[in-house]
Design a protein that fits this description.
mainly beta; 9% helix; 69 residues
Length: 69
């Protein structure tokens, strides 16, 4: 699934993304570290993976990485 980076705190390595429908969803350090990123800037397109069965604002993101084409 794709989203747009919305916030990122380098101290906690957590932040949030905006889904394509505008829904903000938070992610923790575990999801950020699983993607192997070092930094994330607001506005970057990212690929996210989530726990099955979660959706919308209740989505539990398990991986955040840069979107590549």
């Amino acid at each position: 699934m794709q989203a747009t980076a919305f916030t990122y705190d380098p101290d906690t390595r957590s932040g949030s993304v905006l889904l394509d429908d505008g829904t903000p969803v938070a992610f923790g350090a575990e999801a950020f570290e699983a993607g192997g990123l070092r930094l994330l800037r607001p506005g970057q397109r990212v690929r996210i993976e989530a726990d099955p069965g979660t959706s919308g604002a209740g989505l539990r993101i398990t991986l955040v990485t840069l979107q590549t084409f």
